[in-house]
Amino acid sequence: MGPKIQVTNLSLSLGNVEILKNINLTAEPGQVQCIVGPNGGGKTSTLRCILGQMPHSGDIRFEWAPDDQTRTIGYVPQFLDFDKTLPVTVKNFMSMVCQQTPAFFGLRKAYKESIEKALNRVQLVDKEKTMIGNLSGGERQRLLFAQALVPEPSLVVLDEPMTSLDEAGMEIFEGLIQELSANDKTLLWVNHDMTQVKRASDKMTVIDTTTVVSGLTSEVLTEPMMRGNFRAKSELTDSSTDSSTDLIEETAVEGAS
Amino acid sequence: MFGLEFLQQEVQAMVSAGKLPFALYYEFVINAILCALIIGPVLGALGTMVVAKRMAFFSQAVGNAALTGVAIGVLIGESYTSPYVSMFSFCILFALLLNFTRNHTKMSSDTLIGVFLSISLAMGASLLLFISARVNTHILESILFGSILTVNQTDIAVLFVVSVLVVGTGYWLFNRMLLSSLNPALAHVRGVRVQLMEYIFVLMITLVTVACVKIIGAVLVEALLLIPAAAARNLNRSLGGFMLWSVIFSVSSCLMGIIIPMQFDIPIPSGGAIILSAACFFLITSLMRGFMPQFKEARI
């Protein structure tokens, strides 16, 4: 079972720039909490604060289940920064992330089964000898999801993992997210695609430096107050969210009528 | 160094018995080959990490800093031939300062290394010219381009201790160091102390670079970290092969760089000969990668 996460009045400033101001959100086990907002609005910074990677003020509280001794966090980053000609195969990468023995000595027996299972879940098992630089963008994202599944996590944090995915990849991701949620894991998911958010999340928080609105996805999507707020900022900062904001607008109109 | 003396005696006995070539009768040749067998695997293995972490020019900057270290050593009265205390002290300080500046300014590595490289070269050149009246020019030459045939037991002992330290640390932290460079946030979630890994890695490169200065030369040591790994990358598609071939190319380059000039009486410094041998491997593997279908898959 995943932890309950309660974020209260989270604020972050770097130099004179205020990145986050009084962010509040709650994530529960068995629920998918989406964090949405315009580019530069502070979504990734919120995640990094929750993961303890940035100095911040405010309170971030984790309530882990008493029987959860491992408290494993699976993290799916946006991308990997590497030289694409680097001879690191999918299997090497999984060994590097999951085991202590140097990856160039190969995969240890103790991890073989769990890693094969994870690669199977993202349908990459037939690519284990492929160099990660030769994978497509979507396959690399699937690999990043696979590493987050070993060892079995209690909390899964996804930082915009679907940007390079095709339809099949999205289906795999959404299936995994639903499966993890059904197994009482806690999921924090930064996403731009409002269609996916609507389809796969239980709760959502809209962040644009401050918390614009937070609550059950079905309710937040019908909030009239977020319509102007989020839309205006998103249109200024990110053209890729146009379709998302249209959806918010449509949903808000439906909700109003 | 009882072990070393014993080894030398055994080799000489085998030469006398006609089991080994006569060239190996000389102590300096045995020392040189021993050095090659120590630094080859270490530089080959460490080179894969240097290439993966894109830190090639860092060791060049440290190599240049070693020039300043030598000059300081001579100024404070250390031995001309092995001023290890000042070399290690200055280079470690230099490397830590470089990494500290990188972490705190968030400037890109290549820019910052370029700045530090120029500063260290300017300092080293100025100080060496300042002290040049006090030392034999050949000593400066051997620092710049290496002189494997003049290594003594102290040099071998320093090299051995540094190699054991670096190989042990590298084995223990390989995955964590590599993951830190691929995605620091992911490494952090996996329990890796990313900044500590960076500091340990720069220390590893610094120690190896300084220990190899006398053998390969301050100017060329970076090349032996880089070229065998680059040649191995041309042929391999997995980390295991990359590491193995990098070590093979590095050891072979060291042995060829020592044996060929001796055998054919070619008057070139050991450092230059070793790097030219490594360059041959790189050239051959680049051609193989460019023209042989089985290696083309690795190309993007």
SSE order and pairing:
The complex is a heterodimer of chains A (257) and B (300).
Chain A: E1 4-14, E2 17-27, E3 32-36, H1 43-50, E4 57-63, E5 73-76, H2 90-98, H3 109-121, H4 137-148, E6 155-159, H5 167-182, E7 186-190, H6 194-200, E8 203-208, E9 210-216, H7 217-220, H8 224-237, H9 242-256
Parallel strand pairs in A: 3-7, 3-8, 5-6, 6-7
Antiparallel strand pairs in A: 1-2, 1-4, 8-9
Helix pairs in contact in A: 3-4, 8-9
Chain B: H1 2-16, H2 27-52, H3 56-75, H4 84-105, H5 109-131, H6 137-145, H7 153-182, H8 184-189, H9 194-216, H10 221-235, H11 239-263, H12 270-291, H13 293-296
Output the keywords.
heterodimer; A: 257 residues; alpha/beta; Rossmann fold; 3-stranded antiparallel beta sheet; disordered C terminus; B: 300 residues; ABC transporter involved in vitamin B12 uptake, BtuC; 0% strand
Describe the model.
- The complex is a heterodimer of chains A (257) and B (300).
- Chain A has 257 residues and is α/β, with parallel strands linked by helices.
- Chain A folds into two domains: 4-72 and 155-256, Rossmann fold; 83-152.
- Chain A is 38% helix and 24% strand.
- Chain A has helices at 43-50, 90-98, 109-121, 137-148, 167-182, 194-200, 217-220, 224-237, 242-256; strands spanning 4-14, 17-27, 32-36, 57-63, 73-76, 155-159, 186-190, 203-208, 210-216.
- In chain A, strands 5-6-7-3-8-9 form a six-stranded mixed sheet, with helices on both faces. Chain A has a three-stranded antiparallel sheet with strand order 2-1-4, covered by helices on one side.
- In chain A, a hairpin with a 1-residue loop joins strand 8 and strand 9.
- In chain A, helix 8 (224-237) packs antiparallel against helix 9 (242-256).
- The longest helix of chain A is centred in the last third of the chain and has 16 residues, at 167-182.
- Chain A is globular and about 50 Å long.
- The termini of chain A are far apart.
- The model of chain A is unreliable at 232-257 (pLDDT under 50).
- Chain B is built from 13 helices and no strands.
- Chain B is globular.
- In chain B, helix 2 (27-52) crosses helix 10 and helix 3 (56-75) packs across helix 9.
- Chain B has 300 residues and is mainly α.
- Chain B has one domain (14-296): ABC transporter involved in vitamin B12 uptake, BtuC, CATH 1.10.3470.
- Helices cover 80% and strands 0% of the residues of chain B.
- Chain B has helices spanning 2-16, 27-52, 56-75, 84-105, 109-131, 137-145, 153-182, 184-189, 194-216, 221-235, 239-263, 270-291, 293-296.
- Chain B starts with a helix and ends with a helix.
- The chains are: A alpha/beta (257), B mainly alpha (300).
- At the A-B interface, helix 2 of A face helix 2, helix 7, helix 8 and helix 11 of B.
